[in-house]
Design brief:
β8, α4 and β9 form a beta-alpha-beta unit. The chain has 13 helices and 13 strands. It has two domains: 162 residues, Rossmann fold (3-Layer(aba) Sandwich), CATH 3.40.50.2000; 188 residues, 3-Layer(aba) Sandwich (Rossmann fold), CATH 3.40.50.2000. α1 packs across α13. The chain has a seven-stranded parallel β-sheet with strand order 3-2-1-4-5-6-7, sandwiched between helices. It has a six-stranded parallel β-sheet with strand order 10-9-8-11-12-13, with helices on one face.
Amino acid sequence: MFNFYFIVNGPGEIAGWLYPLVDWLKKRNFYWIKDINFYTILVPCQFATGEEKRVLEEFNFFKEIIPPDLYWKNFINKSKDKKIIFHFGGDLFFNGILSKIWKSYSIAYMEKKYFWLFLFNRVYSSKDLKDPKIRYVGELRFENLNRNAFSKESNRIALFPGSRDYALRFYFPFYLALIKEIHKLYPKLQFTFFLSQFLRREIIDQYLCRLNSLLKELPVEIRILKNWKEQVNDFLFALTLPGTTTLQLGYSGIPMLVLLPLHRPEYLPIEGFGHFLKGKLRDFLVEIYLKNNPYLALPNKYKRGVVPEIIGRFNYKKVIKYILDILENRELIERMHVDLIEIFPGLNISPSKIIWSDIYEILEKNF
């Protein structure tokens, strides 16, 4: 027996990268799996919701999940057991150093090149980085998605209010205000809220109870998003915040409007040192970031302006007008769908299959 450790940090890496890889392996009955103890190490992260451990437990796959408050204690553990470390998230340098302290075989899955990649024995990438030392396998986040979840004949609109508690506090009521006005002009439209499995259940229950009377008046369905392929299908349009969801919607071919209200910038997670700044300094940092990054939706990183975005201090009337203009032009929606399908070509082979086949060879040679 030997130990296999995945290192992850927040909802994006867990749901987008780790889940497809684990799900693929669970569906196979490989004999060599029985000789491995699988663990997950959670890294402290400003993008975390605090529910990562619970979600990972629902995988029914890991022998143990090491919480983020114990992350640094791993550096004083110098056990001699054979190990593999697989980096998905967190600080690449520290995770690489941990692999050296443990004298483990180290693997990383990346979106771009980093200086510290030399600390790892094997590196996989979601994009072709034109580096012979990095094996391009494709985007794991696309593996458990419907390739074409769009229907121009559909009357269903999907809404994604984010994966953090404050998202329900601010964006859920905002979305409901939009739905109430849209419903007056388009009474046949149906709306589905996809709530992140990383939200605390008590918070979900609290806000559903508080908004229950309004929900009863509107054609609204509430679903916890656990399986994109099964749940996200046959939609005309979507409203979402920036983040991984925009990439998943793009690959699924669903046109979208990306919203980011900046009325409370103190609640926006920021990478690095900026996360600890408060007040005007934080507002200034957000302003500088937006000037240098005019597009936040990930599909717009592939083709500028392919999906519309509304970022800033706006009211719901401005957003309603924008949405109504889109809904009145089905040709615009269909053109956005075609652009998204062209930007994100389908996977020719499973990234998980490539990675696990490679890992099996590593095990044969090194363990």
